[in-house]
Amino acid sequence: MVLKMxxxxxxxxxxxxxxxxxxxYFFGGLLSLTFQTLSLIHxxxxxxxxxxxxxxxxxxxxxxxxxxxxxxxxxxxALQTAYIMQTMSSEISIASLVAGSLTRELGPVITALxxxxxxxxxxxxxxxxxxxxxxxDALATLGSNPIKYLVVPRxxxxxxxxxxLTLFANAIGIxxxxxIGVYHLSIRSxxxxxxxxxxxxYKDIFTGLIKTIFFGMIIAIIACYEGLNVRGGAEGVGKxxxxxxxxxxxMIIAADCFFTALFxxxxx
Amino acid sequence: MAMIELMxxxxxxxGKQVLDRMSLTVEEGETKxxxxxxxxxxxxxxxHIVRLIEPDAGAVRVDGxxxxxxxxxxxxxxxxxxxLVFQGGALFxxxxxxxxxxxxxxxxxxIPQDEIDKRIKESLALVGLYGxxxxxxxxxxxxxxxxxxxxxxxxxxxxxxxYDEPTTGVDPITADAxxxxxxxxxxxxxxxxxxxxxxxxxxxxxxxxIAMLYDGKIIAEGTPDEIRYSHNPYVHQFITGAAHGPxxxxxxxxxxxxx
Lengths: 268, 259
Description:
heterodimer
């Protein structure tokens, strides 16, 4: 019994040690890549064409899916709050609830998760394939720093495009809620609009947008890190892509929790 | 004068001692072929020369410069002097053939576009390709990809060209054409070359000298004829392609299974 317990504890501590090592190694890698990326942004000629190309891929091409999902989220929010508010006969609060929830929380987070799933996975797969086919090595031998050439444009594009996409998502989500409020719950259009903009303050929008800048950085760094560290062939690329999406989702939610608490305690 | 020197280079990768105090010298204008089994460290050796990999111990000198002590602009200049032809070509999928070949000119040299276009055409012509500038790498055959990779490597007119398995994965006729191309480029551009291969036909054809890498070290070196008639049992087994011999002794479970 004592021996069994000892062996169980030993296995537990070994497994724990391995997990902690992996975690520290992963975070060290992310921090190292972040510092290298930031150092290459300063004082280096940036490939403006590459930044625009990435901004189009990440921002413009993501707009349809972000709009569609935000539109449905806005409608769902309105319907769900209507269900509760009807019991208290205060359907009129739906407008402010939809606007507040979308701008402060759902707009930024949903946009970040969509971009992480769509673009983050794409970046990891692209960079991973370039790594296993030695294209990243080829870049280095052709005198180009792979981080400057591959990571910096993606990092800047994601950081710039995330707030813009979120603004669109907020507006379209509010429009979705408006359609339910006005056409299904028969709230007067002018009243719904008044209630939306009366309660919505700049702080709500800004706190949401500030978060998205960090979400963009998180998506770019994790996606690029996983892509550049792929080992093995196609299987390695597949595994890295899955890991990239899962890690990005976790980090976005954790960062969201951190920023929400920060804004709640220091900017309320 | 030695153009490339690797001195007592050791490298451990993933717990395996790939290079173990390995030394190699390549004279200016020489074509040296490194032969050896797959996974023996031939490509790792090439990557040390362009500093894609740094050794755990030892020194690497190229054209008199200590590769490990240079960085930034100096390292870029070194890369401009060395053309590396990767095994699979490593062409950038998202760029056209022309953009691939002229990549380094676009990115690092202030040359007018018409001059770059002219240089791209010249480099492609040197490898026997015409009118393919607008093609994407995915539209090319394996042999053409290797030629484009070679054109990209020679675009800056480097002093050194490193070839990583240039004839692997192509048919025998294309392989022979690539061998001729390596010889032609050597004569026309007066470059120093290292060719990594396990294709002995190719080795005999292009080499001034052949070195065999085994167990992390160069175990034999000589002219093609010296290697061809070597009494070293390891070299003999490798060049004759025999399944049994000192190289496979004690580790050839596959060969035993075949028996």
